[in-house]
Structure formats: C-alpha cells, structure tokens
Design a protein that fits this description.
The chain is an alpha+beta fold. The protein has 2 domains: 31 residues; 88 residues, Sufe protein. Chain: A, CATH 3.90.1010. Helices cover 45% and strands 17% of the residues. It has a 3-stranded antiparallel β-sheet with strand order 1-2-3, with helices on one face. It is elongated, with a radius of gyration of 32 Å. The N and C termini lie far apart (101 Å).
C-alpha cells in the first residue's frame, strides 16, 4: 500500500497568464478566419437599380485656366455622371486674391446658383461685378464642355 501522492502547486499568476493567452489565441484564430475565410458574394443578392437618366457628364475633375495680368489660376469643376458637385478656384495666389478681391465671392455666388439648378443657364449676377462674373461663368462653361458626354 505504498501509494505515492504527488502534490502539484500552481501559482495563481501562471493560471491567469495561461487563460489570457488562450483567449488571445482564440480571438486571433477567429479574426484570421473572418479576414481570410471564404467571401460571400453580396453582389448577386443585392438588387440592381437602373438609373433612368442619361449620363450628362464623364465623371471627373475638369479645369480651365484663367490669366489676368500675368497671374494665372484655374477654375476647377468636379462632376459625376449627372451632377455638378463642386466649383472652386485652384492655384489662386495671395497676390491675385489681393488684386482681384471679388473673384472668390463672385464664384461662390455663381456656384450656389449652378448647384441649385445644375445648369449654367439663367445665372444672375450684380452689375458691380458683371465682368468678373462673366469671366468665371465662361470658365465654368468651358470646363463643363470638357466633361460633357459626346
């Protein structure tokens, strides 16, 4: 009857570390399966919505250069297939801004009207900045002409 009893001493710190590493390993395996597992084909299950409007523009960013007294900048128009999304002045130096202070407010006024109507027709402008408005409107029309679907 000589049975040898073995006593195993486990420290609580070792048990906690083991449990934490096991949880991390399970999480890592789950993450890898989700990331690199087989993908579901969601394109076949989603309904396809047909756009009934004909495309007016080729989506992209179009610009028209303007030169005023050796100061050059661009009017940039961003469009998607049926909408004018943004109109802005790019490469506008501080010198040009100081020399032509009506340039930015005039473009904002014209752009807000174009956004509302999605057209360059029937744009109104004040007599104070008539020529600035005409210059910017022609630049916008030129950029939109580049974007128009042929």
């Amino acid at each position: 009857m000589s049975s040898k009893t073995k006593i195993v001493v486990l420290h609580m710190k070792e048990i906690i570390y083991t449990v934490i590493f096991l949880i991390l390993a399970v999480l890592m395996i789950t993450l890898l399966v989700i990331m690199f597992g087989p993908k579901k084909d969601t394109a076949t299950s989603a309904p396809i919505v047909q756009n009934t409007e004909p495309e007016r523009y080729v989506a992209g960013v179009y610009s028209t250069p303007i030169e005023l007294n050796d100061n050059s900048f661009d009017v940039q128009v961003t469009v998607d297939t049926n909408h004018i999304n943004s109109i802005e002045l790019v490469n506008l130096s501080e010198t040009t801004t100081a020399m032509y202070p009506l340039m930015e407010p005039t473009l904002e006024s014209i752009a807000s009207q174009i956004y509302a109507t999605q057209s360059t027709e029937n744009i109104t402008y004040e007599d104070d900045n008539k020529y600035t408005s005409m210059l910017l409107l022609e630049a916008v029309k030129s950029a939109l002409a580049k974007a128009t679907v042929q």
